[in-house]
Amino acid sequence: MSAVTPTRRPEGRVRKPLLYVVASLGLLVMAAPFLWMALSAFKTKKDLTASPPVWIPSEWTLKNFSDLLDQLDMPRYFLNSVIVAVLVTVCNLLFCSMLGYALAKLNFSGRSKVFGIVLAALMVPANLMVLPLFVLINQLNLLDTYAGLVLPFAAGAFGVFLMRQFMQSIPDELLEAARMDGAGEWYIFWRIVLPLVKPALATLTIFTFLGSWNNFIWPLIATNDPDKYTLPVALATFANDPNRTVGGGNGMLMAGSLLVVLPVLIVFAVLQRHFTQGIATAGMK
Amino acid sequence: MSTTTPTPARSGAEKAPGGGSPQGAGRRKKRSMGKQNLAGWLFSTPFLALFAVFMLFPIVATLVMSFTDFGQRNVRKPMDANFVGLENYTKLFSDDQFLRAMFNTAYFVVVGVPLTIGLGLLVAVLLNNGIDRARTFFRVGFYAPVVTTIVAVAIVWRFVLDPSDGLIAGLGDELGFTAPDFLGSETWAMPSLIVMAVWRNLGTVMVLMIAGLQAIPAEVREAARLDGASAWQELRRITVPLLRPTLLYATVITTIGYLNVFEEPFVMTQGGPSDSTMTVSLDMYFQGFRFFNMGYASAMAYVLFVVIMGITVLQLRLMKDNTK
Fold it and tell me: Where does the sequence pass through the membrane (chain B) (predicted)?
């Protein structure tokens, strides 16, 4: 070991700063669109249409935000997005952990078949189901309702897979001991298993909430009434509206995008550990 | 809801006879198996019910619809649709717009997937082996685009790419080149969408790769370095082969995602100019929900589904062959 160190150290000293420069440049490219959006949201019409473009507003203004709130019912869309995302998340936490528990810890006939269904469901693209799902939701009179927005996403295969992976690491002896003491399966699941997989529940909460918050094609199809639009649908509709005033309209779009993206980025920055954990777990076999 | 199983389970345990005798234990085990059987199905029911109604039924219904002339009137009266056999499918393969959409989607995948995987891997190696300080900061930065709302991000990119007052046009002015009208040009529109998709998705690949890299034992690297392997040799001969399962998983999910590409062209180009960014999912959406040719759109959805399944199976088979 000691023979290697001297030959490697000089090389490391030269390379390390260079790697930091490369990584920082990469990061800057990644961050540029966000910075552009955040700064443009505070620009006046003059700065927005300036050629060449200006990065830093020559005059900071909140007009884009106030115009946006005047023209679009942003609080309403925000509330719709929150309600749908909360309902979808609660349903997924319950249903996915229930099935995850059954698959990981209960010896029941058909367990392997049910797991096969979950794995198959992981691979089916959502676009395949959208057409008859629209007809079905329409037949059930659930268009423009929260139920219509939530039900198709109330139990995802990813969540089941995630919960099963985590619950498998709980020792069987612990559950057997509880069974010996006369505890029922629901009690074991609710009082013993769920508290032990809190990190997994946190991961699933973030993924499901964001998945719902960012979802676009289904709310686009399942809503006609602007009162039931979620944030992305409202924003896309506004962006593609030919009557939107150019210049000032662009500032409003940047302000709107910032309002949609900012909560997500803050939540992510705070809870980033759970993200990487979730992705890594899903990638393990 | 909390009353489903505790009571019978508890009373069952109390009634279980013959404390320690082998016979009693066997009987108790059998009974507990029966209970687990029932509980297993009860715990599976909510998911399976939702799965049946909102996934299985639509998958089958799409197939059935693809053989009918399902149109706007059938949204109210689905049973009135007429069976037309393979007509939708034969029509698809002489439909220029659909063929264009297939080509564009393939273009998106063939160019976008290697770029996303390659750059994701590169960033992962960089952050894992070269960066010790502020590692989390870098990781968060590269992963941030993945979590953001794609509609909002696509709107921002629309303005970044704007030919008159966009970010890249401004950069061109400073550096002395004229940026093309990216989204208004048949040549540049698709590459622009691909660049945006790579920007957005390389973070997923990065996180997967970092997890994979950390699973490679440090001794393997040490040994290679002792034998005098260069950084490039280490990457090619050690890192990539040992990461193969992770690479394939990342390739499969990225490919599936790109085959379904919808939001980017919907928000940024609406498929234009002259269908140059029309993707299969976008075409399906227009046919299904703008023109209400839902039978025809269902056939499109199934063609896409078959392509996705085929490619996934192929990729998984490649993985099996490689691990032998």
Answer: 38-67, 106-128, 140-160, 193-216, 242-261, 294-314
Size of interface A-B (CB pairs under 8 A): 323
Chain B residues 34-53 with a CB less than 8 Å from chain A:
35-41, 43-44, 46-48, 50-51, 53
Local structure of B229: helix, strand or coil: coil
For the ranges B84-93, B155-164, B213-222, the maximum mean pLDDT occurs at B84-93
Report whether pLDDT(B26) > 60.
no
pLDDT score of B230: 83
Give dist(CA B185, CA A264) in Å, integer.
Answer: 33
Check if the beta carbon of residue A219 is closer than 8 Å to that of residue A84. Answer: yes
Are the beta carbons of A99 and B57 separated by less than 8 Å? no
Which tens digits make up the pLDDT trace of B229-287? 887 888 888 888 888 888 988 998 899 999 999 999 999 999 989 899 999 999 999 99
The DSSP code for B82 is P
Specify whether the CB–CB gap between A155 and B309 falls below 8 A.
no
What angle is formed at CA A64 by the lines to CA A58 and CA A66, rounded to 5 degrees?
Answer: 130
Contact A179 B32 (CB under 8 A): yes
Q: What angle do CA A108, A110, A114 make, to 5 degrees?
A: 110
Contacts (Cβ under 8 Å, ≥6 apart) of A18: none
Q: Does B230 touch chain A (CB under 8 A)?
A: no
- Cis omega (within 30 of 0) for bond into B145: no
On the CB side of B127, CA atoms within 13 Å amount to 30
Q: Does A271 touch chain B (CB under 8 A)?
A: no
- As a whole number of Å, the CA-based R_g of chain B is 27
Chain A environment of B155 (Cβ under 8 Å) = 235-236, 239, 253-254, 256-257
Average pLDDT in the B136-153 region? 90
End-to-end CA distance of chain B: 49
Report yes or no: A21 at the B interface, CB cutoff 8 Å: no
**Cβ–Cβ gap B6/A283 under 8 Å:** no
pLDDT > 70? residue A13:
no
pTM over the 0.90 mark? no
Q: Is B265 exposed, middle or buried (0-12, 13-18, 19+ CB in 10 A)?
A: buried
Structure tokens at B318: 């490649």
SS3 assignment, position B85:
coil
**Encoded tokens for B316:** 């998984």
Extract the tokens encoding A194.
Answer: 């769920």
Q: Is A212 exposed, middle or buried (0-12, 13-18, 19+ CB in 10 A)?
A: buried
Tens digits of residue pLDDT in A181-235: 988 999 999 999 999 999 889 889 988 999 999 999 999 999 999 999 999 999 9
What pLDDT is recorded for position A274? 74
d(CA A121, CA B38): 24
DSSP conformational letter for B184: G
Of A108, A213, A253, the CB nearest to B155: A253
